[in-house]
Design a protein that fits this description.
246 residues, Rossmann fold, alpha/beta
Amino acid sequence: MNIKKILVSQPKPASEKSPYFELAEKFGVEIVFRPFIKVEGLSAKEFRAQKVSIPEHTAIIFTAKTAVDHFFRLCEEIRYSVPDTQKYFCTSDTIGKYLQKYIVYRKRKIFNSPTGKMDGLIPFITKHKNEKFLLAMSETGSTNDADALAGIIEFDRAAMYRTVSNDFGADEPFDYDMLVFFSPVGIESLMKNFPDFKQGDIVIATFGPSTTKAARDAGLEVQIEAPNPDAPSMPAAIANYLAANM
C-alpha cells in the first residue's frame, strides 16, 4: 500500500515538535491539516432566546477552553461586566489556567478537576452547593457532564457555541490516501461535503469509540483505531500502521 498524502482533520499544530511532523519525515508522507468542523459562537439574540441570565449565576462550570472564549464574548456582547466575586469550576487545570486570558488569576476563585473530568470536579462543586451554577455548553455537545451533575446540585445549562461542518470549496483538491477523524461530526461533514463518497483504497483512521462507530454506521471501513493497547495517540497508531504496510 502506497500512502503519500494524509488528511488530519484538526488545525495545524502550533509547535514544530508535534509528532505529526516527525511522522511525515520518518515515512516520507505529506500531512495536510484541514479541519472538517469549525466552531461558531451563538449570537446574543440566540443566547437570550434560551432565557438564561448570566448575572443570576455566581459560579460557572467550564468543560472546554472554547466555552471560556464564548462565555466572555457573550458577556461583552450583552454588556455584562463579570464581577470579581465570580467563581469558576473547570474540568481540567489547562482550562483553569486559560482563564488568565480574561481575568486576574486567583486560585481561591478557580477550582480545577484533578482527573481532567467532571467526576474530579464534583467534590469542589458539592462544597459550594449554595452557589448558583451555570454550565457553559456547546449547542450540539454531549450531555454527559450535565447528566453527571443531575441530582447533585441545581444548575442551569446554556449553549454558547455550536460545532458545524467546515465545507470544502468546489475547487479544493481531495486527493488523500488516508483520512484521520476525531469526532462523529467530522464523519458527518465528510458525508455532507461528498454525498457520493466512495472509500476505495483510502485508509480511514478514527480516534475514540464514538468516532469509530459513526464511521462504520456511515458504511466506512476503519483500518486504524486509536487509542489502542499499542498506541496511546493517533500519531503512534498511524506510525504503527505505516510501518506494517509500507
